[in-house]
Protein: ATP-binding cassette domain-containing protein
Amino acid sequence: MQLDIDIYKTLRAGKRSFTLDVQLQSSSQRNVIYGPSGAGKSLTLKAIAGLLTPERGHIRLNGHTVFDSRAGVDLAPQARRVGYLFQDYALFPHLNVRQNIAFGLSHRWFNPRARERHEQVEYWIRAFGLEAMAHQLPDDLSGGQRQRVALARAIVAEPQALLLDEPFAALDPSLRNTMRRELSDLQQLLQIPMVLITHDPQDVQTFGDHVVELRDSEPDKQIRASCHHKANEATSCKDTSIR
Ligand SMILES: Nc1ncnc2c1ncn2[C@@H]1O[C@H](COP(=O)(O)OP(=O)(O)OP(=O)(O)O)[C@@H](O)[C@H]1O
Structure:
């Protein structure tokens, strides 16, 4: 993926303020943003997805400008064509598995109908082994099944990038290893570019062809980005600047 980000935003809540100031460039398909809690990882991912608008800067995905404050470009989330896997999966509790996945295709304000069938939705239901529970609600699924539904919803519309916020954090340790392997195989199969955020060194090891570390640098609460690559990666670390 070609990822080119240079964003700045100050958020205020009461007397607290937090400044997000992140620059990163990558041409890898597997990118990991790593760092402690509160360092700004989720905010960075939300800005890429169009769920948070930076005050200034730019975001380019695969050569397409999705945000550029100077040029007045700020594409709506749907127009950015990114799949987003939220930390808690954010499945709709009142929609069954099939409807939740179909929601990934929908740009409508009303929910997909329970009986509606889409070829792509059926494909991912089969690929993730969810046939037997396609009519069930999220509350009646295991953690791993819920994660598969959320992942299917994120990729069903064939996004140009997949954004994953702590995808394994809600799983117990043994399932975490299985799901990590599944996601790794899926990324290789689909060759879908991804940005994954995590605290977990094992995720960095598995997915971090390009690793960006966000650090909270007291006292001004500015975020610093630094990067490193796996030893066998040809790309250079110079392409991520540190402010
Ligand atoms: N709307 C907001 N207004 C003010 N501050 C905010 C807002 N949203 C997030 N923050 C603050 O921004 C900082 C970064 O939040 P963010 O969610 O990006 O952290 P994170 O690195 O993803 O943490 P975690 O690993 O715990 O999920 C936190 O200190 C948070 O309290």
User: Anything to note?
Assistant: The pocket of adenosine-5'-triphosphate is lined by residues 11-13, 18, 35, 37-43, 199 (CB under 6 Å). The first strand starts at residue 3 and ends at 13.
